[in-house]
Amino acid sequence: MGGTIKDISIVVPVFNAAPALIALQAEIDKVMALEGITYKLILVDDGSEDKSWEVIRAIKNNHPEKVTAIRMSKNYGQHNAIFVGFRNAKSNYIITIDDDLQHPPDEIPRLIKCAEETDADLVYGISGAYKRSLLRKFLRWGFRLLNRMTADDKEGSAFRIIKKGLVDKLVTHDQEFVFIDELANWYTEKIEYIKVRHDKSHVDKSRYPFSRLSKLYYNLVFGYNAFLLRLITFLGCTSSAISILIGVFFIIKKIFFHVQVGFTGIVVSITFTGGVILLSIGIIGEYMRRMYNIMNAKPQSSVSEILE
């Protein structure tokens, strides 16, 4: 490659991916050698329950100059693990890639070329044909729908190349939950997208069950926008208007039609209003809980071992 990018850091968050790691490192090394690019591979073990850390240590021992191995003290989540990798990356460009070879390393040069040609702060590798189960595709569709409702409708991917300047801004955020794609949109509009291949995972068992993905969506809703606060404001106004209309309706019936007012309307009005109030208190309580965690400096992550 005759481009300007000659040195990169590659951050890989690892979770229960022992079967794929040696092949991943070999593929990355092969691609970088062909392109004439020096690199540092940063493998961040995010509290894996299999033999991932043992495999990472072996890779580090076999390639001491090219690999940094980081072990987190427990599972903090993919984006938190990437942040740990960001803080240990030294190059002017950082690539993030999944640990299971679904994002083929031989597509990395295309990311680099786009970054060189466009001078973008962030380039995503997007696939139109994700090789995932029907459930995962449905969940991904749900995530896109949620994103449209609560934030800017922008595509994202775990396969990306980012300028160090943007990374330096991202890592200033030290709250408990971080979401790279949303934070990046706060700082730059210089974002590009390219189509890339998406291969079958080299890890048979899914590491991200419905419960983990649901938690991610939940954190994203409460962590990066005030959509629900605006929603309860709307519900409060709506319930007030309905309560007033119901009250006026029964007053008119009582005064002009001498109709005996029963308990049905009152019960319906109280139940509806009470439900909205309880829902609102619950949503406000969740936002307050997150503020409490920030005030008490709940850690974003904790590293137990680094092999540089």
Overall number of domains: 2
How far apart the termini lie comes to: 28 Å
Number of helices: 10
- Strands, total number: 8
Q: Can you give keywords for this protein?
A:
single chain, 308 residues, alpha/beta, Spore Coat Polysaccharide Biosynthesis Protein SpsA, Chain A, 8-stranded mixed sheet
Describe the model.
- The structure is a single chain.
- With 308 residues, the chain is of the alpha/beta class.
- It has 2 domains: 7-225, Spore Coat Polysaccharide Biosynthesis Protein SpsA, Chain A, CATH 3.90.550.10; 227-295.
- It is built from 10 helices and 8 strands.
- The protein has helices at 18-35, 52-62, 78-87, 108-118, 134-150, 164-170, 180-187, 210-224, 227-256, 263-295, and strands spanning 7-14, 38-45, 67-72, 93-96, 122-126, 160-163, 191-195, 303-307.
- An 8-stranded mixed sheet has the order 7-5-6-4-1-2-3-8, sandwiched between helices.
- α2 links the parallel β2 (38-45) and β3.
- α5 (134-150) runs parallel beside α8.
- It is elongated.
- The chain starts with 6 loop residues before the first strand and ends with a strand.
- The model has no long low-confidence stretch (mean pLDDT 83).
